[in-house]
Amino acid sequence: MKLDASSPETSRPIENAVARMVTERLLLRDFEASDFEEVYAFCSDPDVMRYFTGEPETAEEVRAFLRRTVELAQQQPQTKFRYAIVLRTENRVIGGCGLDIMDAHAREGEIGYHLLASCWGRGYATETARALLQFGFDDLKLHRIFADSFARNGASARVMEKAGLKYEARLRQNRRCAEGWDDTLLYALLEDEWRAASGTETQA
């Protein structure tokens, strides 16, 4: 995976970053207004959203989200990164993902992702998660990155494990989904663990 960013500064969170992450099969890029139809396709799907916001999103909610991504990219410094997941062979948006800097002082971030249902089970989510981890550790210089999922969503837990995150905790019935109350599974990865797995040295 390679990453191109507008800022050469890597010792602190990138300000106004415009990042394009290119993996074997995917391109992660900023959302565009022209992505509306493809984004609406998965955001309005109850099966996709049941473990995300809990409810399908309306057309206006999707438009508001796309407008919000532009605002987030203009933050100084930028602390919330939102990217469209594009299938390179078809130049088609198949999902969305993001990384939030939760605590700049502690250098901690959170990643998330969701995909069109027809694209589940093909390894795209794992590929996305690994790209976000590399972005967070290599370019944003984070110390710890975490992700979580509903306990009912076993597929998401498997993605986190395949991406290299370590299971840390189970929070009991702290979230609601379409089926009611559910537990949250928390996974995380430390910078040193990422370096060891990827064969790169920690940069001071």
User: Roughly how much helix do the residues carry, as a percent range?
Assistant: 25-40%
Q: What structural class should be given to the helix and strand makeup? A: alpha+beta
The low-confidence runs, each spanning 5 or more residues with pLDDT under 50, are 1-18
Mean pLDDT: 88
How many helices? The count is 6
Principal-axis shape: globular
Number of strands: 9
Task: Explain how this protein is built.
The structure is a single chain. The protein is an alpha+beta fold. It contains six helices and nine strands. It has helices at 36-43, 46-49, 59-73, 124-139, 154-163, 191-198; strands at 2-4, 20-22, 26-30, 80-87, 92-103, 108-115, 144-150, 166-177, 180-190. Strands 1-2-3-4-5-6-7-9-8 form a nine-stranded mixed sheet, sandwiched between helices. α1 (36-43) crosses α3 and α4 (124-139) crosses α5. The two termini are 23 Å apart.
Summarize this entry quickly.
This protein is α+β, with helices and mostly antiparallel strands. Helix content is 30%, strand content 34%.
